[in-house]
């Protein structure tokens, strides 16, 4: 069924940027450089400048970024790595792919690693923590690093959803030993394909990451370590530069639309609204509510031609690759009650009001 307000409409965004994107494509075609080259370097510098981070290293995607980050901070097979019970699968997958063991911790009511439980998850084998800035909202990094630093634990931030969030002026991704972003097309800064990035303030980690993602090569035909091919495509780097130029205005638009949702939906006590969406440490990536009868609300919206999404319908410990029988009540509660409403910069205010009308009407009917 085609929806009149789909959850996401990337084609609308790309219509407005079409001329600029086509010009970039034409430039890259002209140069004939499709791997590496100036476009990737220019994108790295542009992001490094914008975020104020020492080293910004573009790569193939956010999952590879997490794996490489875990490797360079020294995660070895058999080590334990703390991850939240609620996230996209990559967070735990990256740990398992390194031969390490995810230690799942329950989340708080915002879906973020529950910092009050941090000590419960730390053992002698714990090597690192992977806080996830889920939905674009940052984990309290000051509080987290106050625990991790004295214990010598490494921190790899999963900032895949949080490009553009800042805490105390430091970007999501800039607090840990390494921060990882995804430029998957649906992200606030999305490529026209796959893309990712690692950021770090540590020059030797940056050097290790740059080697890892390109077969261990500092220069052609020199292979210092065993690496992989996880380079960012030149074309994606070129497109991402175009989109980076519009990032700030798109963020403002997201926040303005989020404000409408917050103002309209606050009258319904059965809905739990996202916290802190208008603050600097939330990039308004997803507008997630919690409510009873979530599946019925989703169906009701669909009947009205409105798309929505569930982030995420299953908690990580319950997925077959991880199967961990622990108890994660808050993560489980969120997975059963959460619904993400359409939020992207090309939504009109009228459309947001239409979604609000439909949501409020559902609860008014009882
Ligand atoms: C929280 C989280 N971690 C990791 C990733 C992985 O990023 P990618 O899809 O670029 O591999 C994503 C993206 O979907 C994500 O949302």
Brief account:
By secondary structure, the chain is of the alpha/beta class.
Structural features:
366 residues, alpha/beta, Aspartate Aminotransferase, domain 1, seven-stranded mixed sheet, two-stranded antiparallel ribbon, 13 helices, 11 strands, 13% strand, binds pyridoxal-5'-phosphate
Structural commentary:
This protein is an alpha/beta fold and 366 residues long. The chain is built from 13 helices and 11 strands. The strands form 3 sheets. It has a 7-stranded mixed beta sheet with strand order 1-9-8-5-4-2-3, with helices on both faces. A two-stranded antiparallel ribbon has the order 6-7. The protein is globular and about 70 Å long. The structure holds pyridoxal-5'-phosphate (PLP). Pyridoxal-5'-phosphate (PLP) is lined by residues 61-63, 87-88, 90-91, 132, 158, 160-161, 182, 184, 196. The site of pyridoxal-5'-phosphate has 14 residues, from α4 and α5.
Poorly predicted runs: none
The helix-strand sequence is HHHEHEHEHEHEEEEEHHHEHHEH
CATH topology of the largest domain: Aspartate Aminotransferase, domain 2
Q: Overall pLDDT, averaged?
A: 97
- Which ligands are bound? pyridoxal-5'-phosphate
Query: Helix amount, in percent?
Result: 25-40%
Topology of this protein?
Layout (H helix, E strand, L loop, with lengths): L9 H7 L1 H14 L6 H14 L3 E5 L2 H11 L7 E5 L5 H8 L3 E5 L12 H4 L4 E4 L11 H11 L2 E5 L7 E2 L2 E2 L6 E5 L13 E5 L2 H10 L21 H12 L1 H19 L21 E4 L3 H10 L25 H9 E4 L7 H16 L2
Parallel strand pairs: 2-3, 2-4, 4-5, 5-8
Antiparallel strand pairs: 1-9, 6-7, 8-9, 10-11
Helix pairs in contact: 2-9, 3-9, 4-5, 10-13
This protein binds pyridoxal-5'-phosphate (PLP).
